[in-house]
């Protein structure tokens, strides 16, 4: 038997000292980090050595940082979350493979960063996406114009507008200990309050800067130590197009599975909303045959206020081309199934 375990949106932060009146702005709390560490221990103790763990992005978070603080390095973040790091080391030491996929909140993480933390262990790997046995997994931010990796002269340091919005959201949280909602939800709310005129992206940006109490001259401290003002950011991203449907990646999963016949299961993260559902598609090659099924799954999140969830794919031991996929939860140290599907490839 062979298993693949997918989890995402862990959002480990730098856990910097809280000096009153500043509040803790990290999305992953200390207790949640411990809970995740014990989950990794459970996997190590209960699963076979050929089990693979795929971390589907936003595992670290160097975006959630108040505008006037220097953003953390990935090494600072790993160092602040020893429960998670030692949990992953346990898996690697047993001989299991662990893959980190790119997310938006950890966009410029690299294999070199992982090699430093995990002592060059060959079982840990960094990639943009994961493809195996009919499965396609990626974080999902590349379908979200607010949060995709940007190149070109309009982008500041290759970062999308969502980066600056995250910095403002962290600024507000550090001031008020306000709710730690995923950005797509915040953006959806801000978008719902729009009036005409500017592009949606810039209007959302304006609303969030105002909400965080940042005026046009406020200076973001950037990675590397330089600064950029709110009005410079506004000018740089004025043309950004935004779809307000980013809270639901199902249409993107459907498009992806239609374009690639070999893709039978699409696993995303990013939205923080757990899902397992079939994508019922007409088979264009054989329209007289019944519908054939592909599956969309979202691994959910491990941060505040939600029962942590993950996706498990099990290979059928009798039929090597059949995969069972389950949406699982990890509640009070117990793993249980929320829903399941199967597919052959
Ligand atoms: Mn994300």
Secondary structure blueprint with pairings:
Blueprint: E1 3-7, H1 30-46, E2 52-55, H2 74-80, H3 82-94, E3 97-101, H4 111-117, E4 124-127, E5 130-132, E6 135-137, H5 161-176, H6 183-192, H7 200-211, E7 219-221, E8 227-229, H8 230-236, H9 250-259, E9 265-268, E10 275-281, E11 292-298, E12 309-315, E13 322-331, E14 334-344
Parallel strand pairs: 1-2, 2-3, 3-4, 6-9, 9-11
Antiparallel strand pairs: 1-12, 5-6, 7-8, 10-11, 12-13, 13-14
Helix pairs in contact: 1-3, 5-7
Brief synopsis:
This protein has about 350 residues and is of the alpha/beta class.
Task: Identify the notable features of this structure and list them briefly.
345 residues; Purple Acid Phosphatase, chain A, domain 2; seven-stranded mixed sheet; five-stranded mixed sheet; 9 helices; 29% helix; globular; binds manganese (II) ion
């Amino acid at each position: 038997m062979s298993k693949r375990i997918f989890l995402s949106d862990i959002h480990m932060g730098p856990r910097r000292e809280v000096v009153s009146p500043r509040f803790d702005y990290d999305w992953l709390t200390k207790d949640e980090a411990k809970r995740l560490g014990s989950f990794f221990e459970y996997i190590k103790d209960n699963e076979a050595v050929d089990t693979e763990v795929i971390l589907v992005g936003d595992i670290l978070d160097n975006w959630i940082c108040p505008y006037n603080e220097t953003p953390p390095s990935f090494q600072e973040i790993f160092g602040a979350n020893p429960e998670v790091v030692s949990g992953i080391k346990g898996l690697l030491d047993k001989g299991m493979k662990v893959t980190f996929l790119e997310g938006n909140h950890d966009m410029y993480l690299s294999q070199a960063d992982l090699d430093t933390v995990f002592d060059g262990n060959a079982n840990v790997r960094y990639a943009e996406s994961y493809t195996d046995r009919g499965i396609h997994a990626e974080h999902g931010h590349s379908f979200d114009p607010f949060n995709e990796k940007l190149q070109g002269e309009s982008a500041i340091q290759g970062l999308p507008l969502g980066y600056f919005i995250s910095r403002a959201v962290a600024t507000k949280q550090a001031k008020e200990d306000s709710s730690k909602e995923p950005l797509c939800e915040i953006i959806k709310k801000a978008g719902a309050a729009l009036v005409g005129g500017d592009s949606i992206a810039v209007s959302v940006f304006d609303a969030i800067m105002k909400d965080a109490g940042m005026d046009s001259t406020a200076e973001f401290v950037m990675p590397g130590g330089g600064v950029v003002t709110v009005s410079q950011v506004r000018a740089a991203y004025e043309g950004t197009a935004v779809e307000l449907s980013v809270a639901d990646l199902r249409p993107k999963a459907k498009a992806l599975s239609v374009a690639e016949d070999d893709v039978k299961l699409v696993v995303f993260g990013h939205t923080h909303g757990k899902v397992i559902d079939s994508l019922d598609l007409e088979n264009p090659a054989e329209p007289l045959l019944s519908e054939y099924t592909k599956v969309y799954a979202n691994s959910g999140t491990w941060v505040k206020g939600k029962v942590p969830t993950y996706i498990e794919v099990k290979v059928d031991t009798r039929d090597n081309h059949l995969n069972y996929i389950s949406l699982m939860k990890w509640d009070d140290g117990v793993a249980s199934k929320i829903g399941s599907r199967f597919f052959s490839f």
